[in-house]
Records
---
Amino acid sequence: LVRQIVSDPERAELIGFSQAKSVLDSVGVFEDNKMVEGYVTVCAKDENYGESLYDKGMTGYRYILEDDAHETFVFESENALNLSRGDKARIWLLELAQKTYDDGGFRYSVFSGAEEEHVVASEPGTFEPRKVSSLDEIRYQDVFTLVTLENVEIAPLYGAFTNFKESSPSAKATSQTHTIYFDYKGGRVNWMKSFPEYYRFYPTPLIDAQGNSMYMHVSPAVSWAHESYPQGKGSVTGLVVRESLSNFDITSADMAI
């Protein structure tokens, strides 16, 4: 009976993200009947960030929860979970394990091994990203949070979100080597999935009213990759990241969205 209670997600105690991370750092595998709650901001193989992870050799699916205090909880599963972006979800922590990644010197840990039974509850929710009025407000602790950058503009006057389409135009396309998408003219185009790792994003500089700058990273795999830049000031919503792109002289010390 005690074992049943300990392993019952319906009886799990709700704790905060910081406490969950602290416990996992100390033990490596979560052994307590606890759960966390937040809004799904990254869901499995979402376009751009989620899809780009697979060019780095990650297997499975990645999810990120963010709470009202804008703390984050990153976890992974071998199979897709019944979650959608924007859902308010409770995730059971029992038997989740620590997995560590190193992206060009930026080391971080995630909760790994989630299965459908770890989704205690989920329902459609409404989450408001933190609004940022100046790019210099972004700090390292904001990595993995969803933010809206206000009153920014794209620095280049001309171009597209990504300015290349394939790494080897002469290569013979197969379903294993290419992803098929439609370009802005509606024509069918092959994109090579065999881009070198440092081409998984194309960086475009954003600037704010104070002259601060930050890169916006866009994957060549997204459906809107070759649309033209919008002009003028506006807002950009995205995930704060630290990505190393050596061919663009971008290191993991550089904040980006």
---
Amino acid sequence: VTESPELCVIRAAADLALKVRQGLINNDAALIRLVELVDELCGRYSRHPSCPRNESPIYDIKPITSVSKIGCYLKVAKRIDGINLARQALRYALDNLGSPMETLLEMACCLPPHLGGLNLPKPVANQPLVFSDHERELVSHVTLRPDSYWERYRIVGEYNGHDHDGWNASAEDDRRVSDYQACSIKVFPARYENVSTGKGLDEYLRKLIDAMAVVEGPRWRQRVRATLSSSTYRQARQALLDTMLPPRMSDANLPL
């Protein structure tokens, strides 16, 4: 019998809630794992069921559910073990993420600081940009689907994994950047080193903060940068990496 994705979330939440009560993991780690699962179920990729950290995922698939569908299911569910944890996780989930690394990068941006994020506004993931008539005259692509797009700030985040290596892929990335720039959109590409170490994340997030501060203002930038520099946040961020990545990848001393 195939389980619905909504029931899968409930079962995972119940299992994680039990592990928290048993003292096997803390509540923050349980919440991160559940957000990760919801993002995958609502995303465009699927990890290996028995080896999700080490086996290659399947990409470019249709999402089997959405944050809103899971929300409707949780709204009517009552007296179910793990329901509170599931509802907490749903607050931080996002539709249409395209890979585990896109998910990690979005979580590092948008989770609250005690979970290893910076509490930045949520982007829209992998949705087509709407060009104006003037912009259509400037761009070489019929459509562009940025990994993450913050419309308020006119900012795009792109994760460039191994499939972006090689001359052809590099040339296409250059064309995409050129089209974003023609539309007055700032683009911030990320590579593996930007999501696998605290140092890499720190460098990437500082660039995003400065770009968003053009809209939010200097006081906002000062406040977010203070979070970025705090020891409690840095510990939570490392815990996020340790939870999301295999041990050899989450080592903070990994050479860049």
